[in-house]
Amino acid sequence: MIKNIDEYLIEIEKDIEKVYEISNNLISFKKTTKEIKKSIIQDWKDKNIDDNQKVKCLSTLKESYKQYLKIFDKKSKDNLIDLNQQYNQYVDTYNKDKKPLKKKIPVKGMKILGISLVPLMMLLALCISYLCVNKINLTNQNSIIAFSLSMLILVVCLIFLVFIIIFSTKKSVLDYKNKSYICASIGFTASFFDTLGIGSFATNTGLLKATKSLKDDKKLPGTLNIGMAIPNLFSGVLFMTSVSVDLTTLITFVLSAIIGSLIGSSIVNKINKKLIAIIMGVVLAITSILMLLTVKGIEVFPSGSAMGVSDVWWKLFLGCLAFVFLGIMMSFGVGLYAPAMAVISFLGINFLVVFPIMTCSAGLTMHINGYKFYFKNNYMPKTSFFMTIGGIIGVLTSYTIVFLGLITLLKIDQTLITDVFKWLSVFVIAYSSYTLFRSYFKQRKVVISAVPKISYNIDYLDFNNYINSFYTNTFVKNI
């Protein structure tokens, strides 16, 4: 039976609600299982159960958990298959008698677009970088190492792209109402300015809200991490070939930021976010003033010209500590770019060196976080996909204008470009400080009520029946 457009939309909305219902139930299921496990261990410590009961109950809990996890997985996959079938039928019906530019892109079309356009843009950018801007010297050891690292990072980008194309596009119907060209334009704009060191978080957030593409603020971090991961990291590949940087400094600082982000993700719920916001706000406010004193035209303090600090051990050590701290701050929602600019400047390093360091650090961290957001369904799949498409084009455009157009063809002095970027960075850091202060005062108004401790009334005499009945009635029955 052929349905009309409205009937398809009703079915699609119902299926979308079901997807999120299953996803939310799965999260609750995992959390509850951990709580039950803790309760069993606590009862054993309180000597309410003996060793044999503890071992038997934990074993039963583990087996039941695996069994019901498979049920969730099957229901989730089946529901997503039904949803995509409904959406594809809706797209086919909608596209009838529509002009080519007004037709909606089906899921298969998105996959073709991603697998063809993104690698093509990458190849074009690499050709500009290696053949025009900074020709690779295969007789120089540093050039060979830099090229090898660039190719390794490029492989990471392509693996994530394949992941998005195979898995994430299947969920693109979840935010099907967002227009493709708007999402791509947002990605283009954010990545264009991101490549200039202005940062993409504020740009993306403002544009997503201005275009009413963001309906749920909780999905913002996931959308930005997945949507900007590839453009951000790929710009790092281009900067590694275009900006002279000490490789030891680059690698150690990037690894430090990644280690910091992993530490931060494990402690993010244990530290007061208001305290972090006010401390970083003050630090960046002071930093912006100090940075202002180093820019062209003021120059109270001299700016650095070193390509790295691997020859000064204490500077390298301090830099690593600073980037571990910045990586931790990323887990609390503090952007990396502004404070990274300050750290590089204060270490006496040439300001342009910050670009490959901060783009690689932020990009790799986004890749790690992106997988987490995907499995939690806590992002907008279609929006992030087209932000990636637009973002790659934005990186290519911005890089071509600055490094090919201004520096290579027009022969504009690189120090002049650096001076412009330093002036921009002062405003970026000052604005970042303002947003952190604003975040602090907003959080002060939020009163979080205490979460009551749940008692599960565990039946240890017939634990197998208890846990299966509990899982079925609490999580599975209604999905």
The percentage of residues in β strands lies in under 5%
Structural class: mainly alpha
Number of strands: 0
The number of helical elements comes to 15
Mean pLDDT level: 84
Distance between the termini: 26 Å
Unreliable segments of 5+ consecutive residues: 447-452
Number of domains: 3
Describe the global form. globular
Oligomeric state of this protein: single chain
Backbone CA Rg: 26 Å
- Helix coverage percent of residues? over 70%
Largest sheet: none
The H-and-E topology, N to C, reads as HHHHHHHHHHHHHHH
InterPro entries: TM_pro_TauE-like
Membrane topology: Multi-pass membrane protein
Transmembrane segments: 112-131, 143-169, 181-202, 222-240, 247-269, 275-295, 316-337, 343-364, 385-408, 420-437
Family: Belongs to the 4-toluene sulfonate uptake permease (TSUP) (TC 2.A.102) family.
Description:
Belongs to the 4-toluene sulfonate uptake permease (TSUP) (TC 2.A.102) family. It is found in: Cell membrane; Membrane. The chain has helices at residues 5-45, 51-95, 107-133, 141-166, 180-194, 201-210, 220-242, 247-267, 273-292, 313-331, 337-346, 354-375, 381-409, 414-444, 463-476. The chain folds into three domains: 5-101; 111-244 and 382-410, no CATH class; 246-349 and 413-447, no CATH class. It is built from 15 helices and no strands. It is globular, with a radius of gyration of 26 Å. The protein has 479 residues and is an all-alpha fold. The model is unreliable at 447-452 (pLDDT under 50). Helix 5 (180-194) packs antiparallel against helix 6 (201-210), helix 10 runs antiparallel to helix 11 and helix 11 packs antiparallel against helix 12 (354-375).
